[in-house]
Every structure is written in structure tokens, then in C-alpha cells.
Specification:
This protein is mainly alpha-helical and about 160 residues long. It has 7 helices and no strands. It has helices at about 1-20, 65, 75-80, 85-100, 105-110, 125-135, 140-145. The chain binds 2-acetamido-2-deoxy-beta-D-glucopyranose.
């Protein structure tokens, strides 16, 4: 609603008002200060530079590099003598979410994270880690539902095919 009105106003301004505002000789040098946010998918308008929004992190293409940030959790996840995850573990957990890679937690729920761990993962620890870290996520729910999600990135990208020589 509102964006389309601003688009219409911008178009009106460019088509109708700009020729009056801008002398032809100075057209190349002049431009209005960027005050409007850029509209994704909408062509940039000459003379009306828009403010580019800060880029979002790209969606993950693989999960290994994200889950590696949780390796401080390895002792807690595998060693029954370690009863509390260290803060570096919980920091790593938060970082994966902050990188918008929380979908990668499915590789914890389905056990793929075992590839990164030095010893067998203790299942109860995996279920408890979110509570222990104060992360608002139910690992049980992930365990039950992750196999229904489409688009969970692979743990590792497939290696490129050998180049045909
Ligand atoms: C398990 O943790 C305890 C306490 O931190 C430590 O002493 C022990 O070496 C650990 N065991 C293994 C196999 O890492």
C-alpha cells in the first residue's frame, strides 16, 4: 500500500517535476540527497539516489561452517562429566542464530553433528542444551519435525566434479 504510493510519487516527481527543477546543463552533476530507502526489485531512479538497506546475511548453503561455531559444546555433548555447557558453547549457539543459520540446528537434531564430535553424542545432553543455554528452541520439536523441512542445507557442499581433462 504505502510503498506503491511512494513509488507513484517518485515517478510523478521524475516525469513531471524533475525537468523544471533541474537545468539541462547541470543535470549530470545534480542529484537529490538519498533519503528514500531503496525498494527491492525496483529500478534505481536517476537524480533520486535511494538509501541501500544493510545487506542481510546470505542464507546458509552448508551447515558445517556454522556448526563448527558450536564446537565448544563438544565436551558437554559427549562427556558425561561435563554437566554444564561452557559459555563459549552458548555463545556459539547464539551466533548460529544470529547468522540466520538456525535451520542448521536440524543437523544437531538428526545426529549429523556427530561427524564433528570426538565421541558419541549423549542424546539427553542434546535435548537439554537449549535450556542450559537459555535458547528459546525445543530440540525435541526439531528432532520430530526437521525431516519434514525442505531446504535444510547439507552439512558440507558436494565437492566439485573432477574437471574433464
Ligand atoms: C570429561 O570431562 C572431565 C571433566 O572436565 C575431564 O576430566 C575428562 O578428561 C573428560 N573426558 C574426556 C574423555 O574428554
Amino acid at each position: 500500500m504505502a510503498p506503491s504510493i511512494s513509488v507513484a510519487l517518485l515517478l510523478f516527481a521524475v516525469v513531471v517535476a524533475a525537468p523544471w527543477l533541474v537545468q539541462p546543463s547541470s543535470a549530470a552533476a545534480f542529484s537529490f540527497p538519498p533519503i528514500f530507502p531503496c525498494i527491492p526489485g525496483f529500478p534505481r531512479i536517476p537524480l533520486f539516489p535511494c538509501v541501500e538497506p544493510p545487506p542481510l546475511p546470505a542464507p546458509p548453503t552448508e551447515c558445517r561452517s556454522h556448526l563448527m561455531k558450536m564446537m565448544p559444546c563438544a565436551g558437554y555433548l559427549t562427556n558425561s562429566s561435563v554437566t554444564v555447557p561452557p559459555s563459549a558453547c552458548c555463545d556459539g549457539f547464539s551466533q548460529v542464530s544470529a547468522d540466520l543459520a538456525a535451520i542448521c540446528f536440524c543437523h544437531i537434531a538428526n545426529g549429523d553433528i556427530q561427524q564433528l564430535l570426538p565421541a558419541p553424542m549423549i542424546f539427553k545432553r542434546m535435548l537439554a542444551i537449549t535450556d542450559q543455554c537459555g535458547v528459546n528452541l525445543r530440540m525435541e520439536a526439531l528432532v520430530q519435525h526437521c525431516d519434514e523441512f525442505e531446504g535444510v542445507p547439507p552439512m558440507t557442499l558436494p565437492s566439485p566434479p573432477p574437471s574433464a581433462a
